From TrEMBL, chain B:
<feature type="transmembrane region" description="Helical">
    <location>
        <begin position="267"/>
        <end position="290"/>
    </location>
</feature>
<feature type="transmembrane region" description="Helical">
    <location>
        <begin position="207"/>
        <end position="225"/>
    </location>
</feature>
<keyword id="KW-1133">Transmembrane helix</keyword>
<feature type="transmembrane region" description="Helical">
    <location>
        <begin position="237"/>
        <end position="261"/>
    </location>
</feature>
<feature type="transmembrane region" description="Helical">
    <location>
        <begin position="141"/>
        <end position="163"/>
    </location>
</feature>
<keyword id="KW-0472">Membrane</keyword>
<feature type="transmembrane region" description="Helical">
    <location>
        <begin position="361"/>
        <end position="383"/>
    </location>
</feature>
<keyword id="KW-0812">Transmembrane</keyword>
<protein>
    <submittedName>
        <fullName>Metal transporter</fullName>
    </submittedName>
</protein>
<feature type="transmembrane region" description="Helical">
    <location>
        <begin position="297"/>
        <end position="322"/>
    </location>
</feature>
<feature type="transmembrane region" description="Helical">
    <location>
        <begin position="328"/>
        <end position="349"/>
    </location>
</feature>
<feature type="transmembrane region" description="Helical">
    <location>
        <begin position="170"/>
        <end position="187"/>
    </location>
</feature>
Length: 312, 385
């Protein structure tokens, strides 16, 4: 479908230690328990590790990673949960975990507040607020280098249906583990890029790090079930990134912080760095086949950000 | 041989072997506390553009074997076939075949991405189909060579009878003019050689290649020319001048053939006529030491052939088998040969002046050198792009 315009060869996902296909759906919900006040506690451990990763066949990038993968683990919680993250820095530089969410200054994960020297650890603690599609990333200096080297990940906060009686069905469909949620096909997609020669321009663009990963292994969609994509842009050096869906339209929830769409019936959405949102669509009335989706900056498409859905 | 002689001959290589072994075993570089990543270097030596797409001949010059992981054309990853496949060790060359739908007369940018993410760019300034060796094309490039090499030299040498009528002062002027022409050619050849040297893979040390071949060629020709103790003059000197100019024209042919093949021959006819005019004076240079002699027709033909035909060979090589390091080598040789005739022409001028009780550094000779350099500079304006 992409002819000769594609990276050549195959990436060894086993050697990388992460698989872009598995990454679409492997939510990290943490170790769950209850606090004395009845609040749900989710505990995570995240370790910063220097690691060389293969981002296109035969092309290796000296990444800085959370838990040995880029993007880092996709943390998923429900609004109001207490989040407790032990962050261990096993890397060679200082790092932080800076969450896009609501928290105190002490927990902001910036130089002077939760920055962790190599070999040390820090525990971040806050409540998961507000519900939506968020992200976390390293906020150590210099920023550009710490982000584009690979220190970022998805932070998804599901709405608590009881708090949103006016949109209860919509909230319930987003709540991981609920019956309403089970029929949805949910995927997390982090749009990123890699500047392999450090000239402040990306040589590789991708979703979830590996160029053309979803061309070589299209994402399987069942027609009967609706689709929800948690889309996050962390691309460094370029002002925006985008997603264009072929042959279909979607509803879009900017930042995922609302239960009614902020954009209706669009087929392209643009995000600046750290902007994110939720896409909802369905292929129920389509014939089976391969449907493209990709950035609608042709430059990014030609440098790896091209993907396929295999609708069955 | 005497045992001590043996010992003194064998000791240095033995000691060197031991020192290298010690270096390998103890790795003293580790004491420096640095572990730099391997150096990588890729040079594109040839580009072939045809119906199958683009083909590049690349040569690796890394400190360790390196791998071409991906290829971008105009900022898009593209499939490619590498022959031979796999890692490229230092100095090894390989062909990359890229099935890219290139656009005639437009610019294309190829970026080679190595396994470590280093990128090497190669610009195809104007995409034109690479000449395929055919009778028609070979003839075309041959004619090009004849026009820039043989024709002007022959025309220039036709001035010989006119020069033969000149007196002692006229003779000195002609020799001085020749010296000026040769001085210009020397600078021009060195410059062209160094320019090509910069395009060659760095492990060939292009600039050193040019300077050193020039030096060796100069010394060798000077030595051969004076092997009987006497400096060459008259017919012999004419042959040497023809050789130097021939090597220069070989380089010029390489440049012209390469330019036409790479689509840079946009000036076309203008460029060829420019070179013809520019090279007219080369014939005068060869004729200069012959002004007081009569020469047989075969020698006249021979001199023209030696000075002019290499341009034909050059255009063929330039069009079909361009490799910057070989071209740099030839131009280095040419520079050496021209320097030799510069020295010999200057010496000849000095001797003839002394014999006729004139000063070698007279107003006439200064005027002659200036005129020679000036004519070459002015006609070069036509061929500089």
């Amino acid at each position: 479908m992409t002819g000769n315009m594609i990276t050549q060869g195959e990436v060894d996902h086993a050697r990388n230690g992460f698989d872009p296909t598995a990454m679409l759906t492997d939510w990290d919900t943490g170790r769950v328990s209850r606090l004395a006040n009845g609040q749900r506690l989710r505990e995570y451990t995240i370790t910063a590790i220097d690691k060389e990763i293969e981002i296109a066949p035969g092309l290796f990038f000296p990444a800085w990673t959370y838990n040995g993968r880029v993007p880092g683990p996709s943390l998923r919680a429900t609004e109001g949960d207490r989040i407790r993250i032990r962050f261990v820095n096993a890397g060679s530089h200082v790092h932080t975990l800076h969450f896009h969410g609501i928290h105190s200054a002490r927990m902001d994960g910036v130089p002077g507040a939760g920055e962790v020297a190599p070999g040390e650890a820090f525990t971040y603690e806050f409540d998961a607020e507000p519900f939506g599609c968020h992200l976390y990333h390293c906020h150590s200096l210099p920023l550009k280098r710490h982000i584009h080297k690979g220190l970022y990940g998805a932070f998804i906060v599901d709405p608590d249906p009881q708090r949103h009686p006016e949109h209860e069905p919509a909230a319930r469909s987003r709540l991981l583990g609920s019956e309403a949620n089970a029929r949805w096909q949910e995927f997390v997609m982090v749009m990123n890029g890699f500047d392999t020669n450090f000239d402040e321009e990306n040589e590789i663009y991708a979703v979830n790090s590996v160029a053309h990963a979803y061309v070589n292994r299209p994402i399987r969609l069942e027609r009967a079930r609706p689709v929800r994509i948690y889309l996050i842009n962390v691309t460094e050096f370029d002002p925006v990134n985008s997603l264009h869906l072929h042959a279909n339209f979607f509803d879009y929830y900017d930042h995922g912080t609302t239960l009614t769409p902020t954009l209706r019936t669009v087929d392209t959405v643009m995000q600046c760095q750290a902007q994110r949102g939720i896409l909802e669509f369905s292929f129920a009335d389509h014939e089976p086949g391969q449907y493209m989706f990709h950035a609608h900056q042709s430059e990014f498409v030609e440098l790896g950000w091209m993907s396929l859905f295999e609708v069955v | 041989m005497h045992p001590r002689l043996w010992f003194s001959l064998l000791l240095p290589p033995l000691m060197l072997g031991l020192a290298l072994l010690w270096f390998q075993m103890t790795q003293p570089l580790e004491w420096l506390g640095v572990s730099p990543p391997p150096l990588e270097e890729l040079t594109v030596e040839r580009t072939i553009i045809d119906d199958d797409g683009l083909a590049l001949k690349v040569r690796a010059g890394g400190s360790e074997p390196m791998r071409i992981a991906q290829v971008q054309v105009d900022g898009a990853y593209w499939r490619f076939h590498q022959e031979p496949a796999g890692e490229l060790s230092r100095g090894q060359a390989a062909w990359l075949q890229i099935p890219y739908p290139w656009v005639e007369d437009e610019l294309h940018e190829v970026t080679l991405v190595t396994g470590t993410g280093v990128t090497f760019g190669h610009t195809i300034e104007v995409a034109e189909p690479t000449p395929q060796p055919s009778i028609e094309q070979l003839s075309g490039y041959g004619v090009l060579g004849l026009f820039v090499g043989v024709l002007p030299v022959a025309l220039g040498m036709c001035l010989l009878p006119a020069l033969q009528h000149a007196g002692a002062r006229g003779f000195q002027f002609t020799l001085a003019l020749t010296l000026g022409l040769l001085a210009f050619l020397l600078v021009d050849t060195l410059e062209a050689g160094l320019e090509l040297a910069a395009e060659a893979a760095s492990l060939f040390q292009g600039p050193a290649l040019v300077w050193l071949t020039a030096l060796v060629a100069f010394l060798a020709l000077l030595g051969v020319g004076r092997r009987h103790g006497l400096p060459p003059e008259g017919r012999i000197l004419a042959w040497y001048i023809a050789l130097g100019i021939g090597l220069h024209n070989l380089g010029e042919g390489l440049a012209i053939g390469g330019a036409f093949a790479a689509g840079a021959g946009a000036l076309g006819t203008f460029l060829v006529i420019g070179f013809t005019l520019h090279n007219l004076t080369e014939g005068v240079a060869i004729a200069a030491p012959l002004t007081r002699l009569s020469i047989p027709a075969w020698m006249w033909v021979g001199l023209v052939a030696l000075a002019g035909l290499p341009a034909v060979l050059g255009t063929w090589l330039g069009a079909y088998a361009f490799a910057p390091h070989w071209s740099a080598l030839f131009l280095g040789l040419g520079a050496g040969a021209i320097l030799q005739v510069c020295v010999e022409v200057a010496d000849y001028l000095r001797r003839t002046a002394v014999a006729e009780a004139m000063s070698p550094v007279s107003g006439i000779s200064v005027l002659g050198v200036t005129a020679g350099v000036g004519i070459m500079y002015a006609t070069a304006l036509l061929v500089q792009v």
